[in-house]
Design brief:
The protein has 373 residues and is α/β, with parallel strands linked by helices. The protein is built from 12 helices and 10 strands.
Length: 373
């Protein structure tokens, strides 16, 4: 008969492993299925909106790309958010060349701080069309059909479309980790959305209806928290039936990777600091997921060490740890292959445990970050 000192930790590990496997199949599997492509009108006008603060270098590089989209009816709304570099002159020059560019300028007001949410609100008010498509100044479409691809997904009751955004591929461990993080975050985001549990988005590639923004009073509920113009709005406005995801190659966006480990770390903590503003059910569910993933990793090691050389049940524990680790690796690898990151798959055995450990620190640091940071 199995001793109680062996049964209890082994039973705990079995439950944790089953919880992780259930999550993989229940949520992630949806993101790996071949999607049924919608047939949208392709006739709707689209307002592409972005806020730029001292982004002259990125605007100079990306304005030609944004304004070269093959879509019959769109405008580009750029909000010049109190820039003091060459942004204003650059936008004026481009506006004279292309009437599709609409510029909204915000002047610095020391007594009234603005921020990205205020800038985007003004951009939305200035938009001519009901369908809004958001990106950032450091981000650009990988295909000339980006706008058409996103617009195509607005069918039936759709009010929100989630797109994918990935760092530009470069050499080095930091870039590999950043790209893995973007892929893993996208797998989480799309898997939940396809399971009718959408809870977040990336503002580098996000589309929703103008009327939806005003129906939910914009960013009012979290206006004092600097980040979250993307995930917090979607967390508030998403329903089981009004969100679609777009994983078509034409919809992919690329952005400039972080310059150094400190910038990467700060960005992750800043993004995860929005968790406290999520709806209560989403907060509880995400904490449970992270706890199960970490518990499987930590408890598995403890049980294997505890039983090492003492019991044949050690192999059961080791098998459970390897099974859940391998499932996560396989699911992530398949998703990365699907979104065009197959060259990074060979690094997954290294990137996956490192990222899982760092995620614990990012989440803790983000949760205890100063509100409104």
């Amino acid at each position: 008969m199995m001793e109680l000192s062996i049964f209890i930790p082994l039973a705990a590990l079995v439950l944790v492993a089953l919880a992780n496997l259930f999550y993989h199949y229940r949520i992630w599997l949806n993101a790996l299925r071949k999607p049924v492509l919608p047939v949208g009108s392709r006739e709707q006008g689209v307002s592409v909106i972005l806020a730029a603060r001292n982004q002259a270098r990125h605007l100079e590089a990306h304005l030609p790309i944004w304004l070269s989209q093959l879509h019959p009816n769109y405008e580009l709304v750029v909000v010049n958010d109190c820039s003091y570099d060459e942004t204003a002159d650059l936008l004026l020059a481009w506006q004279q060349k292309d009437a599709r560019l609409k510029v909204v300028t915000i002047e610095e007001q020391p007594k009234y701080p603005t921020g990205k949410k205020f800038a985007l609100t003004l951009g939305i008010k200035a938009a001519s069309f009901e369908l809004l498509l958001f990106t950032d100044a450091d981000t650009y479409p990988a295909d000339v059909h980006w706008i058409s691809s996103m617009e195509q997904h607005f069918v039936a009751k759709t009010e929100i479309v989630l797109g994918i955004a990935l760092p530009e591929p470069k050499a080095g461990l930091l870039n590999a980790l950043a790209r893995y993080d973007a892929a893993y975050t996208s797998l989480q985001m799309f898997g939940h959305a396809l399971s009718r549990k959408a809870y977040m988005a990336t503002g580098k590639n996000l589309s929703y209806l103008r009327s939806l923004f005003f129906f939910h009073k914009g960013f009012v509920s979290h206006i004092k928290h600097a980040p979250g113009d993307d995930d917090l709005f979607v967390n508030l406005a998403a329903t089981p039936s009004n969100v679609r995801v777009n994983l078509q190659p034409e919809s992919k966006m690329l952005f400039k990777a972080d310059k150094g480990w400190a910038a990467f770390w700060q960005r992750k903590v800043r993004l995860l600091s929005s968790l406290r503003y999520y709806q209560a059910a989403d907060r509880s569910w995400l904490r449970f997921i992270w706890l199960m993933q970490f518990a499987n990793f930590a408890l598995g090691i403890l049980v294997v060490v505890w039983l090492w050389g003492q019991s044949p049940y050690m192999w059961v524990a080791l098998g459970l740890v390897l099974a859940t680790w391998l499932h996560r690796l396989v699911f992530t690898a398949v998703f990365m292959h699907r979104i065009g990151m197959k060259q990074l798959i060979g690094w997954l055995p290294l990137l996956q445990p490192v990222h899982q450990l760092l995620q614990l620190f990012w989440s803790a640091k983000g949760y205890w970050a100063k509100p409104g940071w």
